[in-house]
Design brief:
nine-stranded mixed β-sheet; two-stranded antiparallel sheet; about 270 residues; Spore Coat Polysaccharide Biosynthesis Protein SpsA, Chain A
Length: about 270
């Protein structure tokens, strides 16, 4: 079973400026609840026992959010407010799961994953990208079921408009395995409409093999001088490691842009 998850949180969040000039984007409230809590709840429901936050020194605010015990104890002692007590108990529940590692230079998602090399114990682990919220259905839970059945890596997939394929990583698929699950032949990063191998896009949920660390260690920086996780995944696929694209049943929300962030609150308020 998948018991560990990692969440890269060191990004600057420039698409949400000016809010992120003073505030960690993952703590911005979405319908009254910090975005990172939706991700943690997804992990807990999926059976995850340990969550590794990859932060930078500029994101110490996230650590303080979960380790602000003295503040809560003083307020609770003074007010004994049931709502605040409930919130504090929730924070304590989250805190039992979380570990922190640091990525102080913005060298890409692959580099962020590499920072967890000495923490990951099992052969596979879950990675969630916090800009991508999936509501109504637990995507991680359904991916773990697919992993358990096929003993393979799994990546979340969503059908996108063919006109928008250049915004996404796009799957080249080998064959359908069962229902909405396909064997992956390749991943093409932001192809032109003409060159896109499909209209099935990569979404920010991954079950990755521990063998990816060796690939990342030897990988040369790509575009922008960053270590890209997609390059390591492509290398593993070329080595005949099985990756499955899982078309999830939930609703996808993009919280990484201002319009997407506003829309996410509106959508979640309808639940």
């Amino acid at each position: 079973m998948i018991k560990q998850a990692i969440i890269p949180l060191a990004g600057l969040g420039t698409r949400l400026l000016p809010l992120t000039s003073v505030f960690a984007k993952e703590l911005l409230p979405i319908n009254g609840k910090p975005g990172i809590e939706y991700i943690l709840d997804e992990c807990i429901e999926a059976g995850i026992k340990e969550v590794v936050f990859i932060i930078s020194k500029n994101k110490e605010m996230i650590k303080k959010y979960f380790y602000n015990d003295n503040f809560y104890k003083k307020i609770i002692k003074k007010k004994k407010d049931p709502r605040i007590i409930k919130e504090y108990k929730k924070i304590l529940k989250y805190k039992k799961l979380i570990k922190f590692v640091y990525q102080n230079k913005p060298l890409g998602t692959g580099d962020a994953v590499l920072k967890t090399k000495n923490i990951i114990k099992d052969n596979y682990f879950l990675m969630l990208l916090p800009d991508d919220l999936i509501i109504k259905k637990n995507c991680s839970k359904s991916m773990i079921r697919i992993h358990k059945k096929y003993k393979s890596s799994v990546m979340a997939s969503m059908i996108v408009n063919k006109k928008n394929v250049s915004r996404w990583g796009i799957f080249k698929l080998k064959k359908k395995i069962i229902n909405n699950n396909f064997l992956i032949d390749d991943v093409v990063e932001k192809p032109s409409i003409k060159n896109a191998p499909s209209n099935k896009a990569v979404i920010g949920r991954y079950i990755l093999p521990k063998t990816i660390f060796a690939k990342l260690l030897n990988q040369k920086p790509g575009k922008g001088g960053e270590i890209h996780i997609t390059d390591a995944i492509r290398s593993l696929i070329k080595d005949n490691q099985k990756f499955i694209a899982h078309n999830f049943n939930g609703k996808y929300l993009d919280c990484g842009t201002m319009s997407g962030y506003i829309n996410s609150s509106m959508e979640i308020s309808k639940l």
